[in-house]
Specification:
This protein is α+β, with helices and mostly antiparallel strands and about 230 residues long. Helix content is about 35%, strand content about 25%. The chain is built from six helices and seven strands, in the order E-E-E-E-E-H-H-H-H-E-E-H-H. The chain has helices spanning about 80-85, 90-105, 110-125, 130-145, 185-200, 210-230, and strands at about 5-15, 20-30, 30-40, 55-65, 70-80, 165, 170-175. The protein binds zinc ion.
Length: about 230
């Protein structure tokens, strides 16, 4: 007998499968990231109606299968984000964030903090969060939620706040006296990063970060993610 399980979750990715099926990845609070096979989901008469769509929050019931994909039995819409579909930049930023979460979060490893981050990112974007700021803040906050918090309180070896450089392999900032190398990370950049890890997304706009600071931070965060994913 197949076991039935249930949870709620946010649709991270969706792709066509076979003639009329779809495979969705759902980030759930109780079961982590799940891959579910939605049989006949592309038929006009599909039992899932319009519930299966990116960024939607669903309530699902599924058959647990030990091998292969779990089988989706019921899906009902809890919350869609109409605000997102009205603005292409915000929708783009949301899909980018969902794809990031899909790439970096391990399968079936429940993690409430990452789930909360993803939900808050989608709803903040739908509520008007600036998409460029949102991407940077979310990417950094997802690092923290997934247990890879970078050290951003000055040099990680001596605590000094000057001549700092970026060392993902050591876990954060390192000053030149302690062996740091490469480009300087200006105080404005690392202090803003530190603030972004503490500010809720809805209030990140108060930091008034300019485009060049945001793009500098994004480069550092991407380097850090790259290192975490290689390990
Ligand atoms: Zn140092």
């Amino acid at each position: 007998m197949a076991t039935l399980d249930r949870d709620e979750g946010v649709v991270l990715t969706m792709r066509d499968y076979a003639e009329t099926d779809r495979i969705i990845t759902l980030l759930t609070p109780g079961h982590g990231k799940l891959s579910l096979l939605a049989k006949a989901a592309r038929r006009a008469t599909s039992r899932f109606g319009g519930a299966l769509d990116l960024a939607n929050r669903l309530q699902v019931v599924y058959y647990v299968r030990r091998k292969g994909l779990h089988l989706l039995r019921e899906a009902s819409l809890v919350e869609s984000s109409p605000g997102l579909r009205e603005d292409l930049d915000r929708l783009d930023a949301a899909l980018w964030g969902l794809a990031l979460a899909d790439r970096v979060l391990p399968a079936e490893s429940p993690d409430w903090a990452s789930y909360a981050r993803v939900r808050s990112y989608v709803s903040s974007l739908a509520g008007g969060l600036d998409p460029s700021l949102g991407r940077v803040a979310f990417s950094l906050q997802l690092l923290v939620a997934a247990g890879h918090r970078p050290r951003l309180e000055g040099c990680l070896a001596c605590g000094k706040g000057e001549e700092l450089t970026w060392h993902p392999e050591r876990g954060g900032l390192l000053c030149r006296q302690c062996g740091g190398g490469g480009a300087d990370v200006p105080p404005k950049v690392w202090k803003s990063m530190s603030a972004l890890t503490r500010f809720p997304l809805t209030r990140a706009g108060r930091l008034r970060l300019d485009a060049s600071t945001l793009s500098h931070i994004m480069g550092l965060v991407e380097g850090f993610w790259g290192h975490q994913l290689q390990r």
